[in-house]
Write a structure and sequence with these properties.
Elements: H1 10-31, H2 39-57, H3 62-74, H4 77-95, H5 98-109, H6 112-130, H7 133-150, H8 155-172, H9 177-185, H10 190-218, H11 227-237, H12 246-256, H13 261-279, H14 281-288, H15 295-307, E1 310-311, H16 317-322, E2 324-325, H17 332-350, H18 353-363, H19 368-385, H20 389-406, H21 411-423, H22 433-442, H23 446-449, H24 454-469
Antiparallel strand pairs: 1-2
Helix pairs in contact: 1-2, 1-18, 2-17, 3-17, 4-13, 4-15, 5-7, 5-11, 6-7, 6-8, 6-10, 7-8, 7-22, 8-10, 9-20, 9-21, 10-21, 10-24, 12-13, 14-15, 17-22, 18-19, 18-20, 19-20, 19-21, 19-24, 20-21, 21-24
């Protein structure tokens, strides 16, 4: 007779998480920023091994664990392809002069004191329009990082401003997949969900704007930056003209028209490659060490920009750092991290650890505040373990929906909590798909931008504050 599965305990469920966090902390302490180059990936696999051993003692079959891992990794197909195309986009947007043009005009338009709040607002507008924080970072976000470096502003602070604005827009956009998913999981009307979410989201972004305004006055240098030298250096190297912005405008229009992200990114890559051949022939010659452009040299320059690291030399050290792109190759470390994280998440799901933790949190909820607190904690737990923002919405959404109904709470309470605690915290975790993506695209480690992503880590506290004081807790009878 085949042994039946033994129900996992709460201690066994949280043990792999505790060990994983300890090992990752040690690893980051030893390797620092280089921990994302491979050592963190191995630690995630070690965590998966520990969870598998616990599963073995609870009669969870090897086949079930492998099937769960397969399902978990399969869910990352779209993010992985998007990452590859973002790498290709960054390379072609560099050699075509699009990113240099954004930096060229940006450092002339923005004053350093007000650059950070402006960065939040611009990213919020783009994200609301496109419904995607990922697209915002891959387009305007990269340019903002470059402008910030040219202004000698800490990249971690700029990264925090970009992410704060991008996730604000992502949460409130009816085009956002996470916004639609949260409403669906709570069985809430989409626009009622968005309307109810503004009650916590708007105060959170206002706090963020005040924070970045204060940083602008107290931490950003007020000394005159030699903008003339910078803009002249850019113009000496690249052909700079507003016509280059045709490519990003087309990409944004495609996303607004709900074109598949992969199609939009591929279009942006091909158009940028074409613009590079038309407008940046000197760059093509430099990259190929050629005296004249041939079909072979042009092909090689473009394919190299898409696939491998591109370095464009400049007499200015700041610009030399900005004129670099990793191409598709630069995204492989992030893809490796995502796959290993999903392996860990798949094992945790297979052994029943995620379900057990959510059930225990639900058991502890004796009033409205404790119910919302348990939902928030569950979202964070899934982000830490399953490493996927979609699961941080789906799993708690399924677990807590009936509990909200029993307490006569409108579904908007659940959908808002899922967004305020699941969507926004995913980007604060280095091994989560969102954290890995944003860190790779912006070139800023999660630990560097985490303290400054004010909107993201303050949103759960605002939600919990509303719940504790009973502010705007909508009832079904309303």
């Amino acid at each position: 007779m085949k042994d039946e599965k033994i129900e996992i305990s709460i201690v066994a469920s949280v043990l792999p998480i505790i060990i994983l966090i300890i090992l990752l902390a040690i690893n980051v302490g030893v390797y620092g920023d280089d921990s994302l180059n491979g050592s963190n990936q191995f630690i995630l696999l070690v965590g998966a091994l520990i969870a598998s051993i616990i599963g073995y003692f609870h009669k969870v079959s090897y086949k079930k664990i492998i099937n769960s891992i397969s399902k978990s990794v399969k869910a990352t197909t779209s993010p992985i392809l998007i990452l590859l195309f973002v790498g290709a986009l960054a390379g072609t947007w560099l050699v075509s002069g699009i990113i240099p043009a954004m930096i060229y005009y940006g450092i002339q338009i923005f004053h350093p004191l007000f650059f950070l709040p402006a960065c939040v607002i611009i990213c919020a507008i783009i994200s609301i329009s496109t419904g995607s924080s990922w697209t915002t970072s891959a387009t305007i976000g990269i340019a903002m990082i470059g402008i910030g470096k040219a202004m000698e502003i800490n990249s971690g602070i700029v990264g925090g401003a970009i992410i704060s604005g991008a996730y604000f827009g992502d949460k409130l956009s009816p085009l956002s997949d996470t916004t639609n998913l949260a409403a669906a999981m709570a069985n809430s009307n989409l626009f009622n969900h968005i309307k109810y979410m503004t009650l916590t989201t708007v105060p959170s972004i206002i706090i963020g704007l005040l924070f970045f305004t204060l940083i602008g006055f107290f931490q950003v240098t007020t000394e005159d930056i030699n903008n003339i030298f910078l803009v002249n250096s850019i113009k000496e190297k690249f052909f700079i003209n507003p016509i280059l912005f045709i490519v990003p405008i087309i990409v944004i229009i495609m996303i607004l028209k709900k074109a598949p992200p992969l199609l939009a990114l591929m279009t942006g890559t091909i158009l940028a490659a074409t613009f590079a051949l038309i407008f940046q022939q000197n760059i093509i010659l430099e990259l190929t060490d050629s005296n004249r452009i041939t079909l072979s040299s042009a092909y090689r320059a473009i394919i190299d920009a898409i696939t491998i690291e591109t370095n464009i030399k400049s007499s200015n050290e700041i610009l030399s750092e900005l004129f670099r792109a990793g191409g598709m190759k630069g995204m492989l470390g992030t893809i490796w991290l995502i796959i290993c994280a999903m392996v860990f998440g798949g094992v945790m799901d297979a052994i029943g650890a995620l379900k057990k933790i959510s059930e225990r949190l639900l058991e502890k909820a004796e009033n409205n505040f404790e119910l919302i607190f348990s939902t928030s904690a569950s979202c964070l737990t899934v982000n830490l373990t399953a490493s996927d923002q979609y699961l941080s919405i789906v799993v708690p959404g399924k677990m807590f929906q009936k509990a909200y109904q029993k307490r006569n709470l409108a579904p908007e309470n659940l959908s808002r909590t899922l967004e305020d605690s699941g969507t926004v915290t995913s980007v604060l975790i280095p091994w989560n798909t969102c954290g890995a993506y944003q860190s790779s695209v912006l070139g800023v480690s999660v630990l560097d931008y985490l303290p400054y992503a004010i909107f993201n880590w303050i949103s759960p506290f605002v939600t919990l504050g509303y719940a504790y004081f009973g502010i705007k807790i909508k009832k079904l009878i309303d």
